[in-house]
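Late entry, written up from scratch paper. The run itself happened at the end of the previous shift, but nothing got recorded in the book at the time, so transcribing now.
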Amino acid sequence: MTGLDMMPHLLEEARARADSEGLRIRFDEGFAETLPYPDGSFDVLVSMFGIMFSPFPATVVSEMARVLRPGGRLALANWTSSSGFGEKMSAVVGRHLPPPPQGAISPFLWGEEATVRDRLQPGFDAVETSVVAIKWELQRSAAGSAEFFTKNSGQLQLALGRLDAPKQAALLHDLEQLWIDNNLSTNGENHTLISNEYLEALAVRR
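Output as recorded:
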C-alpha cells in the first residue's frame, strides 16, 4: 500500500500513525499531476477529496489511468456543489483570496455526475456514481474543530500561505464562525456534528 500527499507534515503524521498501528505503508510526497510511479503500478487507486483540487483535471485523469494496470479499480470521493459544507468552506475562502484567473476550473465540478463521467471517459469504463450523505463528528468544540481541520487541510494551508497575517486572521475567524453556525450538535460544548455530502465515483481502467 502506498500513500501520496503534497503536504510534508501530513505525511509525517501518517507515517507515525501507521507505525503505531503496525501497518506497512509507504508514504510519498508528490502531486496528482505527476504521480511518481511507473506505468501499471497499482491494482487500486483511491482519492478522497484530493484530485478534485487540481487545476488540471485532464492531466490527473491521464496520470491515474497510467499508473493503474488494465482492469484496475478507481475510487473517487469529491465534495458536491449542492450547498454541501465543503462548498460553503470554499466560498468563505474565496472571499479572502484574489479572484481566480480567467478560465479557472471549479473543483466542485468533480462533484457532478455528468462531469465525472465525461472526464473519466478517455481511460475508464463501468463508471458508477452515487451521492453519499455523511456526518462529521468530532469530540471538540466547533471552534476547535475548525482549527483542527484548517491545520490538516492542504488546500486551506495553501490558501493561508497566500495571505499576510491580518488577512490570515480574518480568514481563520470566518472559518471558525462557519463551523459554529453549522454545528448540529446539542451534546455539549466539546462536541461538533457537521452535515456534508460527496459524490462517490467508481470505475475500471480500460
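The chain is about 40% helix and 25% strand.
(Scratch paper discarded after transcription.)
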